[in-house]
């Protein structure tokens, strides 16, 4: 069986001021895509991406359409060069770029959804303040046990299972503080994250119904190539099921480690991170066993596209 390729899209945390600049300077189609995203979102995305300020770019309402548009600008450049994927995946917000790249959603509907998602998540974070922390040096079973015990102090959940020894937890600040003490006792380390809400936890579950209502209005197609979804770590092709999965995704755990394990089992040996920075590439290097030969590439500039195509 020949080796396969997975295209991966990053989520919140991969942004930086200046992202997408070289595509926008060189490619009229990239500029047109961002202009369309600005029109749909009603937000000054070009200014935010290129000039910031950082606190405005990183605001959830702004960041979700901005990063999604840049991810898809990068993918458009690769697709024009004939790059194809056997699988699409995205980490949290990045899953929306995967849906668009796989033909499940139009670009316009993708931007409409992530703008609405950002607005709903901001609303729920204001109503239910909380935070997130990365737990390192402990496996998922140990973290789940800690989360169960720390729930005596408030709402808490496993938000992201990123690698064998990196798990993100999310919830009430009192529960996070209690969990941090338990993590320390077990020999791990809890690192508070600079986020504005308790993403992927029940604290923002109030967004699910309103988000579902918008999803129900939009056309959803079967993927042109399989997507492994964050919520299930499995493929799904039925549009009704995809709607249900994506509505749950806001408040559900991101099963990234399981997704990568599944891709490796499916003979994926080339991973292309499409979008700013190399967060997902870094995680992959922690997940892929030393005896499994894989190519991991990150692309967010025209030069990166040319290098990938040349190889």
UniProtKB/TrEMBL annotation:
Swiss-Prot/TrEMBL keywords: Acyltransferase, Transferase
What is this enzyme's EC?
Answer: 2.3.1.39
Catalytic activity as recorded in UniProt: holo-[ACP] + malonyl-CoA = malonyl-[ACP] + CoA
- Indicate the residues that form the catalytic site: 92, 200
GO CC field: cytosol
GO BP terms: namely: fatty acid biosynthetic process
Protein name as it appears in the record: Malonyl CoA-acyl carrier protein transacylase
Q: Which organism is it from?
A: Desulfurivibrio alkaliphilus (strain DSM 19089 / UNIQEM U267 / AHT2)
Its organism's taxonomic lineage begins at: Bacteria, Pseudomonadati, Thermodesulfobacteriota, Desulfobulbia, Desulfobulbales
